[in-house]
Specification:
The protein has 14 helices and four strands. By secondary structure, it is an alpha/beta fold. The chain has a four-stranded mixed sheet, covered by helices on one side.
Length: 368
């Protein structure tokens, strides 16, 4: 036991002495979280628009002011006709043109309806849908408040409420996903590189003939990364809470226990990769390429699994990040307990046991 403690202590010193390892463990995860937080957004802000106002009455001026004061839009220019719209879009700055018909306010009061045309640059279809949706919502809200008694024949007014994310903040989506991505990559990559480094430098044989047993060697290699990954997860949750405002409405203890389970699963996967990889470059390739892209694409982090082809939906079931993201979204955003995430938890436990058994078998084969 004394030898194992000394070995673990040596591994910690080795990690802390290497600036590159510290950068990968703590610098890259924080940078990734902050980058995702500022880049990945499902809401819009400061979108450049142009307006062609043929009416120029009080109603259209007030609607224009409401659009520009919302914080979502910036006025690029007022147009004199619709002829130059295509050229404006080709420049790439303006994303939408709002066209008010003649006598807009008068028609709205007299006839109960008036027409406004929204012309969007659909070279980016997601942006086009968002921009037109925001514009429509702002215009409808203004008209309802201006003319509360204005009723259209057979008019249906839907009332929408969003549970768990009423402001539709994109941070609620990317913080759990980024947490899963970072913990998967860092835990698996650092473990696999650490063990393959020993093999590459020829020191693994020295360790194997030492008084330490193979199991103790693995524990000594993995335990430092387990502790540092837990610290990493704690930092990510804190940044998500205090920088991006993502709450932890459920049990924080349950959240950390589920996180530790996921980290253990990723560490076991890293051990399995190290038994297959011949050197550090191969281990890094396996960890970065074979894990990063499937985690991003097939976990439901960015792309809804329900919208994928059926074969990819089946493939997503073997992605550990899919189940972990479901767990932490439930705990952080919905406040759910173990009774609601027991299925996902059992799946992660099963995956962990599978990677442990596969790693032990592969390790024994390599020793023989």
């Amino acid at each position: 036991m004394k030898q194992l403690k000394s070995f673990i202590k040596k591994e910690f010193f080795h990690i802390f002495r290497d600036p590159r390892t510290m950068l990968i463990l703590f610098g890259i995860p924080i940078a990734q979280l902050l980058i995702f937080g500022t880049v990945i957004k499902s809401e819009i802000r400061d979108v450049h628009i142009a307006i062609y106002d043929q009416s120029k009455d009080e109603t259209t001026m007030q609607i224009t002011n409401k659009l520009l004061s919302s914080g979502y839009f910036l006025l690029d220019e007022n147009l004199g006709s619709t002829e130059g719209i295509e050229d404006i879009f080709k420049k790439g700055k303006v994303k939408e043109v709002v066209v008010f018909e003649s006598n807009f306010g008068e028609k709205l009061i007299r006839e109960g309806s008036a027409h406004v045309q929204l012309i969007a640059d659909a070279s980016d279809p997601n942006m086009a849908r968002l921009v037109t949706s925001y514009t429509t919502g702002i215009i409808n809200d203004y008209i309802r408040k201006l003319h509360p008694n204005l009723e259209m024949p057979m008019q249906i007014q839907p009332e929408v409420r969003m549970y768990f994310n009423e402001e539709m903040k994109s941070a609620y989506m990317f913080v759990p996903g980024t947490m899963a991505l970072i913990l998967m990559l860092i835990s698996a990559m650092m473990t696999s590189i650490s063990i393959t480094r020993e093999k590459e430098m020829g020191t693994m044989e020295i360790l194997l003939v030492s008084p330490l047993k193979p199991g103790q060697i693995i524990v000594g290699k993995v335990l430092p990364y387990l502790i540092l990954s837990i610290i990493n997860a704690f930092v990510i949750v804190l940044i998500g809470r205090f920088v991006f405002g993502v709450p932890v409405t459920g049990s924080f203890i349950l959240l950390m226990l589920e996180t530790i389970l996921f980290i253990l699963m990723a560490l076991c996967l890293g051990i399995l990769i190290s038994t297959v990889a011949k050197n550090q470059m191969v281990a890094m390739f396996f960890s970065m390429i074979a894990l990063m892209l499937p985690t991003i694409i097939l976990s439901g982090f960015i792309f809804p699994i329900e919208n994928m082809p059926e074969i990819l939906q089946w493939l997503s079931h073997i992605m550990p990040a899919r189940w972990f993201i479901s767990i932490i979204r439930g705990i952080m955003l919905k406040g759910t307990g173990l009774l609601f995430v027991w299925k996902e938890t059992l799946i992660l436990i099963g995956m962990t046991l599978f990677f442990v058994v596969a790693s032990v078998k592969k390790f024994k084969i390599r020793l023989e």
